[in-house]
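ok so I'm stuck.
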Amino acid sequence: MQDSDSPKLYAAREPIFPRRVKGKFRSLKWGLMAAMLGVYYLLPWIRWDRGPAMPDQAVLLDLANRRFFFFMIEIWPHEFYFVAGLLIMAGLGLFLFTSAAGRVWCGYACPQTVWTDLYILVERWVEGDRNARIRLHRQAWNLEKAWKRALKWALWLLIGLATGGAWVFYFTDAPTLAVNLVQGTAHPIAYLTMAILTATTFFFGGFAREQVCIYACPWPRIQAAMMDEETLTIGYRHWRGEPRGKQTVEGNGDCIDCMACVNVCPMGIDIRNGQQLACITCGLCIDACDTTMDKIGKPRGLIGYLALTDEPLERQGLKDKPVWRHLLRPRTIVYTTLWAGIGIGLIVALFLRANLDVSVSPVRNPMYVTLSDGSIRNTYDLRLRNKHGEDRWFTFTAFAPADVTLALEGTQEFRVLVKANETKEQRLYITAKTGTLAAATDSLPVRLWITDAEGPTLPPAAEIPKAERVYKDTVFHGKVQ
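replied:
not stuck anymore, here's the structure
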């Protein structure tokens, strides 16, 4: 049984009420927050003309048809490697920025940070700045506290609802879904998704806040592997600030222990105690400390971006290394090279991909069929995918070391019509007459050229643009004598 005098194993969370601050880092955070929220909320409403048979939403995750549209780019299910490549680039980018400048992602661009900043802004509008919010939190429930809390929570719920609504708009036509949501005719999954995202945004941004960053997010524990002594991160220059105290006392450092850096911190930490897991390097403590330094006539930079290698130089009164020497080092160069290489590869693959896609699957049971005239026939199942926004004719040509003939099931021609942005299954027959080399060979390589070039005559395959032709290698099986 735990003794009453022993330390508690669990302590209730103490709410954090960050004070408002002005400065370059706070302005940067406001600008990034406005830009990112604007993109998130407005992007589904941007229109993009792709033709009469295509959706006109610029960014659309069309799960029903298993396609992803991003302005002029269209990604099909078999091209998921583009998405995988982007995810790898996102991970490498996170490694790169963390190794270069610490947790800048957490401090400026993480959704938890962005929405928490927005919720704190609403809280400040309704309840006042830090001291007013602390008084309201500590006072007993009365009419003032009730209406302010009700108004704040209502605004938080509206933000959460807008967040969930914007998310579902990415998966179907936004104007149509908006009308259906208002009329109550939308699919239940849309309402369920909005309810879940509204609740999580409301809870994480309003009540969990720093708890998510400290306990739920794994990145604070992983970041140590990405950082080294050359990483630029926020720190307190203790050799300049200590001992703390009034400036009127001889021998004191530049820190007057005003607690401004602590009061503005959204994580509630004291940066003067050194690097901490909870620090998201948002830079607000720099703005607060610089403001104080301006007031007491001391140079700025008591709290700022620095690397461990700068400390001995600064303590000796020497100039620290230039920023580029911290950024350009083997670790960041490797990350940048990998990141850029994957990006260039994706761009090249995007522009070199064909506008048609074909898969050829030989029918193995039976391997071949002997016709009444003695000819040997192989059967192949084709999947033809037309990536154009219009109907196209796919034309077939076979190249083999021996004479073979093609036949498409259901037509006497060597071409088949595939509807716009659809996939068609087609059966193909390749036949070798009796007595020919192909009929008497165990296996014969065959190359099928499939093009969507139209006209009365088919030009040579080499003259057809790469985006309009593909080839597939397969094997013709004959009857060994």
